[in-house]
Amino acid sequence: xxxxxxxxxRAIDNAHAWLAxxxxxxxxxxxxxxxxxxxxxxxxxxxxxxxxxLYDPDLAALAIKQARGDLIEAVFLIxxxxxxxxxxxxxxxxxxxxxxxxxRISATFKDLPGGQILGPTFDYTHRLxxxxxxxxxxxxxxLPGQPPVAADGDTPPHLPHVSEHLNHDGLIEPAPQGExxxxxxxxxxxxxxxxxxxxxxxxxxxxxxxxxxxxxSTQRGYGRTxxxxxxxxxxxxxxxxxxxELGFAVEIxxxxxxxxETVNQFKGSRSEAPQFTRGYGLVFGxxxxxxxxxxxxxxxxxxxxxxxxNIGAPAQDEEFVxxxxxxxxxxxxxxHIKLPHYVxxxxxxxxxxxxxxxxxxxxxxxxQQQPQEAAE
Amino acid sequence: xxxxxxxxxxAEAPLQxxxxxxxxxxAMARPGTLHEVTGAxxxxxxxxxxxxxxxxxxxxxTPLHLAxxxxxxxxxxxxxxxxxxxxxxxxxxxxxLGRWADLMPVNRFAIGQPDYxxxxxxxxxxxxxxxxxxxRLTGPGIRTEARLTLPGVAAHQANHARFPLGFDLIxxxxxxxxxxxxxxxxxxx
Amino acid sequence: MTDQAYTxxxxxxxxxxxxxxxxxxxxxxxxxxxxxxxxxxxxPYGWGTGGVQVTAACxxxxxxxxxxxxxxxxxxxxxxxxxxxxxxAGVATTEATAEATLIQTRHRIPExxxxxxxxxxxxxPIPEPLRFLEPRETETRKMHELEEYGLMHVxxxxxxxRHGTIATSYAYPVKVEGRYVxxxxxxxxFDNPKLSGNAAIQLFGAGREQRIYALPPYTAVVxxxxxxxxxxxxxxxxxxxxxxxxxxYLDEVITDDAGGRMFVCSDTDFCAGRRREGxxxxxxxxx
Lengths: 376, 189, 287
Known about the structure:
The complex is a heterotrimer. Chain A is an alpha+beta fold.
């Protein structure tokens, strides 16, 4: 006997309880703490902050814990929380030239004022599993002189951007100074064509994997832009907010950022002398791969304003890139096909059955007619 | 800013604005129907209904035009305190407030763009005598016909003729409101 | 009881005002898709975030809310959304179509005719009816502006050339008041006639795609077709095996390994109501 499926509520409650148990894992293994995640999974925390568009390492760590390490799920938790936050003010633009640097490298100059600062990078590690990390240790005493650049009252260096050196000679396009307030992707619907500020917002909160692949495709010839990493810098900048009652800006905190500026070839056009052009990437936290990829995609999307050819490459297609970069949107829509679609499927099934019946009838009729025709 | 400016807003905004919006939406969905609203006590000469509409729909993101008799210091202060809408000239307004005569000529107001007809003004028209009867309304939202005391039938006909472009009206009087979207056909009685 | 950590119906007042303004413009230009700044909701995009935001902007404490998915009140996502509003808005809920003042739906229009004062909120995945013919928003916007709907007719006509019939069985495009071509959301085309002249307010919310559109009551809605291939609101030629209804939309249920199957109303409230009144189908009132 058929019994209509009931009990959705109980099924949901049971699923949630099971999920909570799975999240915790074996009870004889100590539970992860938020400070542990924040300290020791910092790059995951950074990614969740960047794609969640919310700079709060503790909340990002909490989201990672709650999401069982599923970073896109964690980004989603942060986005949903972010929506409910009141907006008190908009900060002034951060000044990345005043960044307290932990890392700063240039691929275009062997040496330059301030030098190359390697910083905490995987770049020259040999990717050999370090089995000593498998031995769990008790809390350790801080290493002397940690962190290296800020030890013993040393202030981290503030260095001008590498592009400023090129700018002196007019070799690179000036950074456009926007007068208008940039639009806010999270407060108004995406409108196409998008200006660069809107594009950069969409890319910096876009999925790292998607942006990486788009950037990679430009390197392989799908909208090639001949990018050099003019400068990659990582460090902390002050965030300031204008207080109208006081008449001046007040520092409300500090955030860690990764900034990448590419220097790209440009042949020049009839109206403009040959000059290098720029691609730009700026991402919360130490997120180098994302910052570099962002600057390549940014540059590829600038083909129109620079009078370049659209060769139809995916990374040149603003609507394609911007409408598909968001992993919270993409995941939701992808996974919604798990939801019941009985009704649509039933409609399709009825249609297919009817078409098949009509085709069979037509064929049968044809068979009947053929012998008659032969007899005539 | 006088003390009056500080009072007369919603005491319980989430619930009051929800009920008020429902009335405004029913009005816009069924042109010509009349709906009672409460909860605002704006300074004279503004009606309760017009105050409710402002509190429900306007904020610091919606440029507002105060026309004629509605452009008073007391009302400006009230808007500044409760709503925060920037006050602008007619062509820039997303919302405009005034008596019909003060809103003339209505061709000053935004009617949207062919690709974005939603970017048009909503006029909140203070009516001395808002009731059923008068001009004949037909179109979406109306089963057979509706009747409404409407000023300026020709202007509404011209507005409808530009559909999907055009402005939309919310008509207010005392604690009652009705609406006339651009989709409605208007004929003189 | 309302969850005190969040405001009434979850969304902050500024967001609700933004959605409410979009709803009014949507009602003023029936069938036109109004862009709105859709917010991230605590449920995934594609799972009804557009409908949820529209519902949140419309709800009043006095409402009686019904949520259906595939016509049924007890599908998991319908349960989840109903719980969300019971928790954040404290509204009463119901499974009875007649008692509901606001109905949020995915993929169906209830069988029982709606009345004045009711609101039907549709969850919409892809609001743009032209999207699968032209993927670019910049292009489809222009096509709506210029009423250039030839592409849609070409597509439907190609169906006829290939299959002898229009091979669109759900999300069947409609024209609203002779102006905008509109996607009715993935309802089966069986439901299309209920769109037109409906006494209720019909609101459509697409969260991920950031669009809201609407049909005021008694709006004329026509399913696209050709003179020689008129639109038909078809359904399988069965009656409901539980309540015997001959004119309701049916779910097909596989009952055993031997190809056995039964057909039951997709509208669970409608079916239960008929059985309460004593109607019986092939398998009687067993379930």
